[in-house]
Design goal:
single chain, alpha+beta
């Protein structure tokens, strides 16, 4: 029996969607944030809206999923938050005769488990991870918990700076966009923890599975 390829499934839902004055507009902004993130971290399957206020995406590795979800969070406008569940496992596509097919497999079951855990974790934006290996699950889950803590403490300008620098802008270019000095950007990066986000992203990109291009992912 041929094993299904490994992948990292992402399930995202809007925090407090019922309180939003324009849910349709919020959904469009979230898909735009995913599209921007996918420019830097190409997915196995781009994000799409599923049922209600939920979105799904598929990446080759958990490293890519972690890198992409950070970018989505930072690209969102103020007061619009998304909760993520990342699941690592098998990915199967069931032929429905109408296009992309129906996604199935343990990657999706674990992503569902993870997003439910993220929901219980905090009232605001949060991320959780689930995989087959308990040690990996604990390690990655702790990593995204700390990452979300740093992102959650960023002020509006700091979020824009983090998003720009993760997108490849230099500090000088980010300073020009914000109409501040490069020195002010450097101080904000060090003070806010943006430097740690950049270090984490670079480390994940350099990991054996962090910038995979072949089908499947390492567990």
């Amino acid at each position: 029996m041929t094993r299904a390829p490994q992948a990292a499934a992402v399930i995202a839902d809007i925090v407090g969607s019922r309180r939003l004055p324009d849910r349709e507009g919020a959904q469009e902004q979230i898909l735009a944030a995913f599209a921007a993130a996918e420019q830097a971290v190409p997915p196995l399957r781009p994000a799409w809206a599923s049922v209600g206020d939920e979105f799904q995406a598929l990446h080759r590795t958990w490293e890519e999923a972690v890198r992409a979800t950070a970018r989505v969070s930072l690209a969102l406008p103020p007061r619009l938050e998304v909760r993520f569940g990342i699941g690592l496992g098998e990915r199967r596509v069931l032929d429905d005769g109408g296009g992309d097919g129906i996604e199935d497999g343990t990657a999706w079951y674990r992503a569902r488990e993870a997003v439910e855990r993220a929901h219980a974790r905090a009232d605001g934006a949060a991320t959780a991870f689930a995989g087959a290996d308990p040690s990996l699950t604990a390690a990655v889950d702790g990593l995204v918990l700390l990452r979300d803590h740093v992102i959650g403490r960023l002020k509006a300008r700091e979020r824009r700076l983090a998003a720009a620098l993760l997108a490849g802008a230099t500090q000088t270019e980010a300073a020009r966009a914000e109409r501040i000095t490069q020195s002010a950007v450097s101080q904000a990066v060090a003070r806010s923890g943006i430097d740690r986000l950049l270090e984490l992203d670079a480390g994940l990109a350099a990991a054996p599975g962090g910038d995979a291009r072949a089908e499947g992912a390492r567990q």
